[in-house]
Amino acid sequence: MVDSIRSLRTRRALLAGFLVLVAISLAAWLAISLAAGTGQTKGASYHFRWYITYDSIFAPDGSIISGLWLTISVSVIAQVLGVGLGILAALAKMARIWPFRIVSNLYIWFFRGTPLILQLSFLFYGIQTTRVFTWPLIDFGPIVIAPEVVAGVVILGVNEGAYMAEIVRAGILAIDPGQTEAAKSLGMTYSQTMRRIVLPQAARVIIPPLGNEFNNMLKNTSLLSALSIFELYYTFSSKANTTLIYFEYMIACCFWYLLLTTIWGFVQAWIERRFSKGTTTSSAGPGWRERLLGGRRRQQAEEIAILGGH
Amino acid sequence: MTAPHVSGDLLGAIGGVPRPETDVVVDARDVNKWFGRLHVLKNVCLQVRRQETVVVIGPSGSGKTTFIRCVNHLEKIQSGRIFVNGRLIGYREAAATSRLARLHVPGRPGRSGSDRKKLVEDREKNIARQRQEIGMVFQRFNLFPHMTAIENIVEAPIQVRGTPRDEAMTMGRALLERVGLAAKENVYPNQLSGGQQQRIAIARALAMKPALMLFDEPTSALDPEMIGEVLEVMKELAREGMTMIVVSHEMGFAREAANRVVMMDEGVIVEEGTPDQVFSAPAQERTKAFLSKIL
Fold first, then answer.
1. Do B190 and A279 touch (CB under 8 A)?
2. Domain coordinates of chain A in residue numbers?
3. Which residues in chain B have their CB less than 8 angstroms from residue A278's CB?
4. Which of A142, A189, A272, B183 has its Cα between 20 and 30 A from that of B134?
5. Can you give the three-state secondary structure of chain A, one letter per residue?
6. Which residues of A touch B124 (CB under 8 A)?
């Protein structure tokens, strides 16, 4: 038994080493051919201005910094709005009173059934041109938020709420009905039961998909370029459009998005660990090392061992 | 069997039980319940007096669990009335006529109070208030897994009754001590044995100072060596004069602590009497058949 396990492990290590080698050599080939400016295509070779990529990453100008800042703040606010709306929509969808259910279903149906970019241009340009409603400019004194940014945040949040509704509903349904009965039998009202007993437990189920949603949100903010909002992507694409230097700027743009999503991965792991209160340690979610190196198999093995030992 | 050190005075820990206005705590009259086409409770009548412990026995599917779940309105009933401390549980009686129609219209006979009254489910807030008086202990404990033992106990007093936190904590600690788990104050339920969890569940229910305690097969999900410690707490509670309805097949507990044993079968109360009567000389064939299977 021990022998077979060891040989299996060795084989796996060999396979991993092989894959890493392949990946490194591919990357090296790409880097060398790009740096040499000798692609496989015929014709004039492209002259790479790597300093542009370098500067956009290591010495970003004010426009990049403010784009980054806008992307982060819009994502966070829209996600918070989305979670709030999602909880409300989930509760409404499970309500005993049917008008709540209808409204919630219609909301989810529309925002999950149409493209986000269409929602942005319809609810901003479309509504703005009818003059039935105009998106307001919000003036906080030192900070002034333009109407299109207000619209962008709200539409992203409302769109997100439709997806969060289903996630929250699944989280609530995952909680043992005995919990609700125990809370009721203690004289707790519906709202107390939800707030104190069901939602805190559902949070643990909701957080992994919520992390996924926020990762999507960080990237979906790039659609705000349709409203000419200078978030991260639009900042880079307009630089590229005016200079006609696409490749170098887009690589730098990739770097910034990857940085954001990677940092978020760590934050998410931390949040998941915090929310595993009162549950077995194995459900604490993968740590950063597992996250980066993909320790899924080991975690599964641990979970199986725990189940078996029970 | 390792019985916990239950040092008496369980009710002392919560400062006694409020005295109900009437001597009859539970008064169920002609209760009928259907699950779809299945008639699970058929004209069930049961009275439980103050300080009485009633043990309900019967084969599975006989409706005993459903019945006590109706007593705190976790289940709806289709006809009949259940009163706890003289108050109708879960429903209000709406006169069949609206307020307008009750105004005397000349030429029409006025509708008298003896008209059939309709049951309308009460508002959620009122039901919640009624449930504060009724403690319930479940077969599967249903402790809140995201809260420690003490947090489980003080949650409802603080949130529902508005008890100040300090006061609630003092009472919670006293209750933990009474059920022999003072050392487990800050432990989460998943680190406790079944017997310990169930004792905390009992403490949690007692923290609301209920006038009535319902036990739904409190020892059925426990390993045999843990049944004793839970029954010990329940016996103590019965001795101290708590009014209790217990669905259980623990004959030892019934003989020692019950004032009355009720036998249910197919949604009907088949027989009731003192533990001695029912266990030693059952009058009904169905009771005899059932007892022969479990004894």
1. yes
2. 2-11+47-275
3. 145-148, 188-190
4. B183
5. CHHHHHHHHHHHHHHHHHHHHHHHHHHHHHHHHHHHCCCCCCCCCCCCCHHHHHHHHHCCCHHHHHHHHHHHHHHHHHHHHHHHHHHHHHHHHCCCCHHHHHHHHHHHHHHHHCCHHHHHHHHHHHHHHHCCCCCCCEECCCCEECHHHHHHHHHHHHHHHHHHHHHHHHHHHCCCHHHHHHHHHCCCCHHHHHHHHHHHHHHHHHHHHHHHHHHHHHHHHHHHHHHCCCCHHHHHHHHHHHHCCHHHHHHHHHHHHHHHHHHHHHHHHHHHHHCCCCCCHHHHCCCHHHHHHCCHHHHHHHHHHHHHHC
6. 189-190
Distance from the B55 Cα atom to the nearest Cα atom in chain A, whole angstroms? 20
B131 touching chain A per CB within 8 A? yes
ipTM: 0.86
* Residue A273's pLDDT band (cuts 50, 70, 90): confident
Q: Spell A228-249 as b/e; 16+ CB within 10 A means b.
A: ebbbbbbbbbbbbeeeeeeebb
Q: What pLDDT shows up at residue A27? A: 87
* Residue B230 token pair: 């839970």
- Yes or no, beta carbons of A186 and B156 under 8 Å apart: yes
A199 to chain B: closest CA residue = B146
> pLDDT (tens digit, 9 = 90+) per residue, A203-243?
989 999 999 999 999 999 999 999 999 999 999 999 999 99
In the block, tokens 């992307």 appear at: A71
Fold classification of A2-11+47-275 (topology level)? MetI-like fold (1.10.3720)
B162 contacts chain A (CB < 8 A): no
> Encoding tokens for residue B32?
């009928």
Contacts of A190 in chain B (CB under 8 A): 124
User: Distance (Å) from the C-alpha of residue B72 to the closest C-alpha of chain A?
Assistant: 7
pLDDT greater than 50 at residue A309: no
Residue A34 has pLDDT above 60, yes or no: yes
- Summarize pLDDT for A84-103 with one digit per residue, the tens: 999 999 999 999 899 999 99
Record: contact A188-B160, CB cut-off 8 A = yes
pLDDT at B183 over 60: yes
Using the Cβ of B146 and the Cβ atoms of chain A, whether some distance falls under 8 Å is answered with yes
As beta bridge partners, residue B214 has B136, B245
For residue B68, the chain A residue with the least C-alpha distance is: A185
Residues 182-211 of B with CB under 8 A from A: 188-190, 201, 204-205, 208
Q: What is the pLDDT of residues B141-164, one digit of tens each?
A: 999 999 999 999 999 999 999 999
The token duo for A16 is: 């991993």
